[in-house]
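pinging the channel bc i need a second pair of eyes. not urgent but kinda urgent?? the chain im working w is below, pasted from the shared doc
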Amino acid sequence: MKRLSRYRRHKAAGPMLLILALLGIGTTFSIASATTTSQTSKVDRSVQIEEGRQIFLRGCSSCHGLNAEGGQIAPSLIGVGAASVDFQVGTGRMPMADMSTQAMRKAPLYDAQETAALAAYVASLAPGPEIPSDSQLNYERDGNTAQGGELFRNNCAMCHNFAGQGGALTQGKYAPTLMGVDPKYIYEALITGPQSMPVFSDKTITPAEKMSIIKWIKAAEKEPNLGGASLGRVGPVTEGLLGWILGLGILIGVAVWLAMKAR
């Protein structure tokens, strides 16, 4: 007791006790704040999921089923993940009136908040690909244009055209142009495989390689066409064929005109 009393009377005892008290208060406050934040986040998430469920029941359940189990004209959404919903709804492809045709990109019916709610609801049904964050989409930092061009030509050009302009597929389907598409939607299409497109998992094309593909597409958007009309940038064969048809047509027309005039 005497030793403890001597330490209590030490001139450093007061500051040390103050520091310990402040540390204790700070730790307690941090734990309480984290708990409150976590509980608030869970509440907000539940509210968002319920909002998404109501939107789904009003606008999607007639085709995809009341529990997103699918139907005769629309597939199940269980396990497709938030990224698939964000892509389809955010690009205006869904909802659509005629499920027998290919979904086209158009102005979205739902705003960003409603789209996020729908995505959260579908994601709550079963695990699936998540919406990429902004930090994941830094293609300027993580991408390589030369590598992206090679990957695009090996994996995408056979459908989307070697310049990303889009192209025709079988049975009246088509691969849309990639010009002017938001990087987030390109990434989501790669990981979800919408419609006729295959899924490119991270084992097939790594996230860094996906960034390279996006960087190449964005570089192709800015590339000027120095030859005049682009003609879809399908290459010299089409441009040469058009030149032959127009050139020969003009020459034949001139020859016929000269022959008629000579009579």
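so The chain has two domains: 37-131, 132-245. and The domain at 132-245 is CATH 1.10.760 (Cytochrome Bc1 Complex; Chain D, domain 2). — does that match what u expected or am i reading it wrong
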